[in-house]
From TrEMBL:
Residues 1-19 form the signal peptide. This is Secretion system C-terminal sorting domain-containing protein. Residues 729-797 form the Secretion system C-terminal sorting domain. Keywords: Leucine-rich repeat, Repeat, Signal. Gene3D superfamilies: Immunoglobulins, Ribonuclease Inhibitor. SUPFAM superfamilies: Hypothetical protein PA1324, L domain-like. The keyword Electron transport does not apply. The lineage of its organism: Bacteria, Pseudomonadati, Bacteroidota, Cytophagia, Cytophagales. It holds the Pfam family LRR_4. The keyword rRNA-binding does not apply.
Length: 802
């Protein structure tokens, strides 16, 4: 097959083919700078590739293959001609000349449709525009018949009835690959006025028919254009939509604009599919406004609102926070109503609104309210708005209050962990076109300007920290937005083994990682269970200073006790791990448990700390479990030498914070409690003596206070009875009353009941042989009953109250 190639030999080439009938059976390639103009009917039976301009003066019939390329077809018809493109696409299509162009088959325009003069008649076929631009449409050039748009967005249909242009625009078409067709029909007979319509304008000549390929496709408002002389009463004109029962229902109007002999009416209600016309009626549409409120409610938390009485159940005028005046919604007052999320654009379409107060909520975006001419007060203060929402509303001036917006989340969470040495970019972008960002690390400015990002190079202990941004906007005065702070922290790993001797690994146990703090208890950062070969690994450890505590399983390793790194049982002596990079091979050898003691002495007590509850009726302490406790006995030394302490007992506090050392021999001891970060208060009762008789048992109460462990009291509680002194105490345990029997009477005898902190709870004379002490008002527990004769302690009995 022969192919004709039309190429550029100079800057522009213009070719003209003149004949009464042109047949192209060969291939034609029209170059990008070539214009081909024809006179005479043209039948294309070959392959036509168009990257230039094809001007048709007469009919066109495409029986071959047309490749649109980047080319344009111009229908320059002085008289009526047909255009039969055989259901194929064109790139750009232009209509010139006063003659009409009749489409014989469906035609798709890929790039642009240019209407300069004359009418395109589609009859039963369709001119389909695929996301293309339509330009220069006017009263003298439009589409008469079916015009179809593909895609989302605003869609302009320059259609007419053969006598005049009646364009229609659908705003905000939304769907999945929507396909919308519009055409003009003669005003239908037999219809009557429905809701929102005073009367039909029977002299109005046309109706618009709009169809969509999918029932789920939607659109916003519709703009109808018609000649000024097409309707007798333009001031009361409103949009109308056909409903069942051969009625037209009012869609109201948002505006009515007359310009250059044409009137444009924008509907108040939304619409997409159906039969539409112009009628005389009411500008507003109460149903549309109430549906806007429903959308607002459903989109912003609904059931979590705290001010929603009667919403969606009663009449709109009974909905909490809504003011209805006549048939219009004039005020929305829903401040501090726990509203969360985005306020829909439909709220800004309630043209009758004068007051909108949604302050003190959690709204993160609002629409543009600047078009509401009736609005006198807009209060959106103390929400979660960014500058993208506020910029369009600044033009309202004093009408709007946008102060004190809440911190904005960057959706990074509270903490971002980054492997040490890795680069990281902190992004603090919020909505707005004229933002200025002041980025801070640990409250120190590190970057300022229009750039919302900050590059953290090879993150380490020096450049990690708490990042946040203060944001201002040149268009929105007197407001600084702040982002929620984010801790961007470098992390590394620590690994090693737990050993029970220099050559033997532990097979069961845990290793605890404590972060060293400036004051108070160290933070327990992680707890890791060792494997059967004693290995442990801590991953994602934030760079800081740490100590480690290896705790062998006491059932498996019965002769080993918890030990800190540095192989010590005391946290004060542990070797701090200064973590700047990952640490490997940090082994800990557990200390051996001391041998069993042989004696009759007992050391017991508990460890507690302030729980922060400030109420005189409630104990303000809570017990500490799992704290290591040691009892060390002093060893005699030569004069002038330091005292040597020998470990004789190690235990941990139980779930109630209690500990106990039995079988201690007589001697001097020192008590130590291991609660990392809280040293023992050396000025308190940490040294004690185990003696005989009533001094054989020592009970202590220790409290974590002001960053130290203070032994508040030392109570000697050994069971004791002086020789030749007889007293019988019963029942024990007791519920309500303790009975005390003596051999004789004495007016010098008294009973004193103490708790284990040494607090005196009851004191009572006991002159008779049979005496009673009421304990019904005391809580269950263990107490000490002292019996004195002439101020001399004669007996101590431990009493249990149930």
């Amino acid at each position: 097959m022969k192919r004709i190639s039309l190429v550029i030999l100079v800057l522009v080439t213009t070719l003209s083919l003149k004949a009464q009938f042109i047949v192209n059976s060969n291939g034609i390639d029209l170059a990008s700078t070539t214009t081909l103009s024809t006179n005479g009917d043209w039948v294309n039976t070959g392959t036509f590739t168009n990257n230039g301009i094809l001007i048709l003066k007469d009919s066109w019939t495409n029986q071959g293959t047309y490749i649109p390329g980047n080319g344009k077809i111009i229908l320059d018809y002085d008289v009526n001609h047909s255009f039969n493109h055989n259901n194929q696409a064109v790139g750009s299509l232009a209509k010139r000349g006063i003659g009409s162009a009749t489409l014989i088959t469906n035609t798709q325009v890929l790039d642009s449709l240019l209407l300069e003069n004359g009418i395109i008649l589609t009859n039963a076929d369709t001119l389909l525009v695929a996301n293309s631009a339509i330009v220069n449409a006017n009263n003298g050039s439009y589409v008469s018949g079916y015009l179809t748009h593909l895609g989302n967005g605003n869609k302009y249909f320059p259609i007419g009835n053969g006598s005049s242009a009646f364009p229609v625009t659908l705003t905000q078409v939304i769907g999945v690959a929507p396909k919308v067709t519009a055409s003009i029909e003669t005003f239908p007979a037999g219809y009557t006025a429905g809701a929102g319509i005073d009367s039909l304008l029977n002299n109005f000549p046309v109706a618009w028919r709009i169809n969509a390929s999918a029932q789920t496709d939607t659109a916003s408002y519709i703009r109808f254009q018609f000649p000024d002389n097409a309707v007798a009463f333009p001031s009361v004109a409103v949009a109308a939509r056909a409903v069942s029962g051969n009625q037209f229902e009012g869609m109201g109007k948002r505006n009515l604009i007359s310009n250059n002999g044409n009137t444009t009416l924008t509907s108040y209600s939304k619409g997409l599919k159906g039969l539409f016309t112009i009628a005389a009626g009411f500008s507003g549409n109460f149903e549309t406004d109430s549906l806007a409120l429903v959308t607002f409610y459903n989109n912003t938390g609904a059931v979590t609102w705290t001010k929603d009485a009667n919403w969606l159940s009663g009449n709109v005028n009974t909905w909490q926070g809504i003011t209805q005046t006549g048939n219009s919604i004039t005020a929305i007052t829903l401040d501090a109503a726990n509203i969360t999320g985005s306020m829909p654009s439909e709220i800004a379409d309630i043209l009758s609104l004068t007051t909108l107060n949604v302050a003190d909520n959690n709204i993160n975006s609002i629409p543009d309210f600047s078009g509401l001419t009736a609005l006198t007060s807009l209060n959106v203060s103390n929400n979660n708005l960014d500058f993208a929402s506020l910029e369009p509303n600044v033009s309202l001036g004093a009408v709007v209050n946008y102060s004190n917006q809440k911190p904005i989340s960057l959706n990074l969470g509270d903490t971002v962990l980054v492997n040490v040495g890795t680069d990281y970019t902190f992004v603090s972008t919020v909505g707005g076109t004229q933002n200025n960002y002041a980025i801070k690390r640990n409250n120190v400015l590190v970057n300022e300007g229009a750039n919302s990002t900050f590059f953290i190079d090879a993150i380490n202990r020096d450049n990690m920290g708490r990042y946040e941004a203060d944001i201002t906007n040149s268009l929105v005065p007197n407001l600084t937005l702040r982002t929620l702070p984010v801790d961007i922290l470098a992390v590394a790993s620590i690994d090693g083994r737990m050993l029970i001797s220099a050559n033997e690994a532990a097979s069961a146990g845990v290793v605890e990682l404590f972060r060293i703090t400036e004051s108070g208890a160290y933070d327990t950062a992680q707890v890791n269970i060792i494997n059967t070969t004693g290995n442990y690994t801590f991953n994602n450890v934030i760079l800081a200073d740490y100590i480690l505590l290896a705790k062998p399983n006491e059932q498996v390793h019965t002769q080993s006790i918890p030990t800190y790194n540095g192989n010590t049982i005391f946290w004060e002596e542990a070797e701090a791990v200064v973590l700047n990079n990952s640490v490997d091979g940090l082994d800990i050898i557990a200390n051996a448990k001391p041998g069993a003691s042989e004696g009759n002495g007992i050391l017991g007590g508990f460890l507690e700390e302030d729980d922060g509850i400030d109420d005189a009726r409630i104990e303000r302490t809570s017990r500490i479990k799992g704290a290591g406790v040691t009892a060390r006995r002093t060893q005699g030394t030569s004069r002038g030498k330091d005292v040597v302490y020998i470990l004789v007992g190690y235990t941990v506090t139980d779930d109630e914070g209690n500990f106990n050392f039995p079988n201690l021999p007589q001697g001097d001891y020192r008590l130590n409690m291991q609660y990392p970060g809280n040293p023992m208060d050396s000025t308190s009762f940490i040294d004690f003596t185990i003696g005989v008789g009533r001094e054989a048992e020592v009970q202590v109460a220790a409290t974590v206070f002001d960053g130290k462990i203070t032994v508040r009291e030392r109570i000697v509680t050994g069971i004791f009875e002086a020789a030749e002194f007889k007293a019988n105490v019963f029942p024990n345990p007791v519920v309500e009353t303790i009975q005390i029997e003596f051999e004789d009477v004495s007016n010098k005898r008294e009973m004193v009941l103490l708790d284990f902190n040494g607090n005196r709870l009851k004191q009572q004379q006991a002159p008779e042989k049979q005496n009673a002490l009421n304990v019904n008002d005391l809580k269950s527990g263990t107490y000490l009953l002292q019996i004195k004769e002439g101020a001399v302690l004669k007996k101590i009995v431990r009493v249990v109250i149930q």
